[in-house]
Design goal:
The chain is mostly helical. 53% of the residues lie in helices and 10% in strands. The structure holds zinc ion (ZN).
Length: 189
Amino acid sequence: MALLSLTEGCGVIILMVFTLQSHGFHRRVWCHNPHGFYTSKSWLSLKKVGFGPHRAYWRTIWKLKMLPKIRVFSWRVGHNILPTYDDISRIRQNFSKNSPRCKNREETLIHALKDCPSALAILTFGGLDNRLIEGSYEWCIDWLEDVLRALDVKATADFFTLLWNCWNNRNNWAFNGKDDEARVVWERA
Ligand SMILES: [Zn+2]
């Protein structure tokens, strides 16, 4: 099997893709490949989705000055390929799809990063425009595109750092059952 690596900034981004369900790229699941390589097939998938719809989004995130890990995160958010409980419940039996924080709603990505009360609190502390917080979106990418249209370059980079902290806060909650105060998360951003 042919192997390719992709160097991005000072880090090497390693991702491998497989399809969880056939709902288009929104349902693709990406995993770190422990061997540090793309397969040629996954690289073709990356090219295909990266230069298709939402092109302006991809062009913007590659230009922003962000840590490589946050850039990769913003790429994965745009493709809806972070492991939410809703995703995990599709491949694991008897796994609750409900949000580990509020436990009220299915934990889709837009819920985890925007609609969950904990996420809303973090975004509010971060000073994101109310209109961008309150809008209703099914997919993260649509929300992100609206946010990018409203923010300048510096504010956009700060926004992705905030989202990165929001996702880590969610992971802390999911794995350790702990939640940070929204203010603490914001101060770390
Ligand atoms: Zn929630």
